[in-house]
């Protein structure tokens, strides 16, 4: 098991079986999790800095494990990617997020955008546009309310196939953002060649905003770059008021982070929106 993270180790710390057999066990459990409906989506609010209103939510995957409790993706995503199980899992995520989005729309919750994380494998192997079209059609969700978060890794190859799919998605009305911006092999040229809407500044830069002048310089540069290219810029991982103030000063458009709320279940998210205004 090469790319299993630290969480996986802790996850199995009490398990005395050999590592390979533990991995096999996790894989078996992971295979059954979809049919047993053990996956659930949590939602983290995204706030517009100018209006102070909630404009969207990022859908984040959780595994409600019958014995081990609620698991964050760090403990099983690596294996899901290695085994290809990420494909059916992410297909479920997409459908579930769209279903939820349509319900919230019908409930009059406002124009809440829902962002879904896309896996690199998914973008390469599956017909993403077909998946997305199907999810939108069967849910009835308004396409402009769906956002797909892509990593720099997906964009890096300048793959014709990927560019084509992105244009099809855009023509549907779906918006596209770059996740963890600044942490990949930032080839700036891809920003021009892809139909993007938003950059999400990685939380590692936001975290050091108050303490490290170079973090501030990087955040400022990303915001300026985004705006020059007519992209919206969202800062992730905002945890403190000083970080928020700096981001506001720098002209950042949107924020997301524990300072507002962590990822929470759908019903708690609705309550949060009601309380904090739309
Ligand atoms: P990400 O896309 O960068 O998601 C943001 C992560 O940062 C989430 O971790 C979130 O809980 C956490 N976070 C949010 N605000 C703060 C903050 O203020 N401070 C700190 N320290 N952390 C914050 P989570 O939910 O454990 O997800 C981890 C990663 O797993 C995600 O990183 C994403 O890459 C991946 N992931 C999550 N859901 C999915 C999914 O449905 N499909 C795929 N392919 N990947 C997913
Ligand atoms: Ca993300
Ligand atoms: Ca991110
Ligand atoms: Ca990430």
TrEMBL record:
Keywords, in A-Z order: Phosphoprotein
Superkingdom of the source species:
Bacteria
List membrane-spanning regions. Answer: none
**Is the Protein transport keyword given for this protein?**
no
Residues in EAL domain copies: 23-277
Q: What is this protein called?
A: Diguanylate cyclase (GGDEF)-like protein/PAS domain S-box-containing protein
Q: Where does this protein come from, organism-wise?
A: Kaistia defluvii
> Which part of the full protein does this chain span, and how long is the full protein?
435 to 712 of 730
């Amino acid at each position: 098991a090469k790319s299993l993270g630290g969480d996986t180790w802790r996850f199995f710390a009490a398990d005395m079986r050999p590592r390979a057999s533990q991995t096999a066990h996790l894989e078996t459990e992971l295979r059954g999790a979809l049919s047993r409906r053990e996956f659930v989506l949590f939602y983290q609010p995204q706030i517009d800095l100018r209006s102070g209103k909630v404009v969207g939510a990022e859908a984040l995957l959780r595994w409600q494990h019958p014995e081990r409790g609620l698991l964050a993706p760090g403990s099983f995503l690596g294996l899901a990617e290695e085994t290809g199980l990420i494909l059916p899992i992410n297909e479920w995520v997409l459908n579930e997020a769209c279903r939820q989005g349509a319900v919230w729309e019908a409930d009059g919750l406002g124009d809440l955008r829902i962002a879904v994380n896309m896996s690199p494998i998914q973008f390469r192997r599956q017909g993403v546009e077909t998946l997305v079209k199907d999810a939108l059609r069967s849910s009835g969700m308004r396409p402009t309310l769906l956002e797909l978060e892509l990593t720099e890794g997906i964009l890096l190859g300048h793959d014709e196939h990927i560019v084509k799919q992105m244009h099809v998605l855009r023509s549907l009305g779906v918006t596209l953002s770059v996740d963890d911006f600044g942490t990949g092999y930032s080839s700036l040229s891809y920003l021009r060649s892809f139909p993007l809407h938003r950059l999400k500044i990685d939380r590692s830069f936001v975290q050091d905003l108050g303490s490290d002048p170079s973090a501030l310089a990087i955040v400022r540069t990303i915001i300026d770059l985004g705006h020059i290219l007519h992209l919206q810029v969202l800062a992730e991982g905002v945890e403190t008021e000083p970080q928020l103030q700096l981001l506001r000063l720098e002209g950042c458009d949107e924020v997301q982070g524990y300072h507002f709320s962590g990822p929470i279940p759908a019903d708690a998210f609705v309550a949060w929106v009601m309380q904090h205004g739309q």
